[in-house]
């Protein structure tokens, strides 16, 4: 295998993004004084997902996604709000929500750091992601931090990985491997970049896509059997 660099997705791979998102949602609802009886996180989650899928199809810009998802969410509550301001409030809640590691992550990081150069490869807004990562000691493990927002490209695009390769020069694609929970973002991204992939299927879901990871694990403890 001979890998030299392990790329690590952040949200829902190293940390529990669902936990942070729920906290951010209620932070937003509190700021806008939405009664508990009216709140519907699952509805917001569907609206949010639909908007990001539209973005991936080039039907919406990123700015439109960040704003419109909240305009639509609050419309269900009979409220008209400024989507940009709501997004800022939500992201503040996201950035300050206490980080919850997935089980086994810290041990896995210790193990990987002893053998490889590590880098974070995350889709997200730079200011928010850096504030969240700053809550942890993650930067003591990694040599590079790649955030789509400041790169001008996001997973699964080939451009994202070309930037990674140009930042970490003198290596070949077969020197890299990426670990991530998302088939469509992390695994397809790795395939587009020509590198091996490890699908962290911690939710134990069926892979009903044509996307085929090089390896699949269900827990972080299994990392040592592959790398």
TrEMBL record:
InterPro entries the UniProt entry points to: HAD-like_sf (IPR036412), HAD-SF_hydro_IA (IPR006439), HAD-SF_hydro_IA_YjjG/PynA (IPR011951), HAD_2 (IPR041492), HAD_sf (IPR023214), PGP-like_dom2 (IPR023198), Pyrimidine_5'-ntase_YjjG (IPR052550)
Q: Where in the sequence is the signal peptide annotated?
A: none
Recorded superkingdom: Bacteria
The record's section on NCBIfam families has:
HAD-SF-IA-v1 (TIGR01549), YjjG_YfnB (TIGR02254)
Q: Mind telling me which PANTHER family this protein's record contains?
A: PTHR47478, PYRIMIDINE 5'-NUCLEOTIDASE YJJG (PTHR47478:SF1)
Instruction: Please state what the protein is called.
Output: YjjG family noncanonical pyrimidine nucleotidase
Which species expresses this protein natively?
Staphylococcus agnetis
């Amino acid at each position: 295998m001979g890998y030299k660099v392990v790329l690590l997705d952040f949200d829902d791979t190293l940390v529990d993004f669902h936990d942070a998102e729920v906290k951010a949602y209620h932070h937003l609802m509190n700021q806008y004084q939405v009664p508990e009886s009216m709140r519907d996180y699952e509805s917001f989650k569907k609206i949010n997902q639909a908007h990001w899928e539209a973005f991936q199809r080039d039907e919406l810009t990123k700015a439109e996604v960040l704003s419109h998802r909240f305009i639509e969410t609050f419309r269900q509550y009979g409220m008209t709000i400024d989507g940009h301001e709501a997004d800022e409030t939500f992201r503040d809640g996201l950035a300050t929500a206490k980080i919850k590691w997935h089980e086994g992550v810290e041990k896995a990081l210790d193990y990987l750091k002893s053998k490889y150069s590590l880098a974070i490869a995350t889709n997200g807004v730079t200011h928010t992601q850096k504030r969240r990562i700053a809550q942890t000691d993650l930067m003591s493990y990694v040599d590079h931090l790649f955030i789509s927002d400041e790169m001008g490209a996001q997973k699964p695009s080939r451009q994202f990985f070309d930037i990674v390769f140009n930042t970490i020069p003198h290596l070949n694609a077969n020197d890299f491997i990426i670990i991530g929970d998302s088939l469509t973002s992390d695994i397809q991204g790795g395939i587009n970049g020509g590198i091996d992939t490890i699908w962290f299927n911690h939710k134990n879901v069926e892979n009903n896509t044509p996307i085929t990871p090089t390896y699949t694990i269900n827990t972080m403890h299994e990392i040592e059997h592959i790398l």
